[in-house]
Amino acid sequence: MIVDASASTRRHGALAQAKGLLAELFTSAYRQRARLAVLEAGGAQPRWLWQGQKASPELHTWLLQLGAGGGTPVIEALQLATPWLLRRQRHKPGEQQRLLLLTDGRLRDWSRLTALPCTSLLLDIERAPIRLGRARQLAFELGADYHHIDELALSRAPTWNRP
Length: 163
Known about the structure:
Elements: E1 2-4, H1 14-31, E2 35-41, E3 47-54, H2 58-65, H3 74-91, E4 98-103, E5 119-124, H4 134-142, E6 145-148
Parallel strand pairs: 1-2, 1-4, 4-5, 5-6
Antiparallel strand pairs: 2-3
């Protein structure tokens, strides 16, 4: 999972709404004893918070403290996640992987991207009255499914055990 925590996600309640969805996902993952990897993409560079461990209440603690600020190192986070996913596939071939990317797509230019090595969903959290719609293009280039957060109700949050 990659969470865009850049300054632009603070506007119009985008990060707050995403945090509500993440809380539901973390609870679901904990109940299912799912393993997660979480990258925070905010500030100057992305940072790993969780790498393949079982979901834990500690994730909720991080979520409560999560704020937005700085740049948008989503591309750098993707560059960290891709080799990690490929290594994980080699070491745990029976593990089903999915990548969730939460972003408002407000990135500066990005170079040509390659498809992600697993099933992926880009959840667009852009909430501004005038939307740039760049997250949809990013999803297309990554080969990821695309949904806007407004389309999802918290009670229908994606679960970790779906194929």
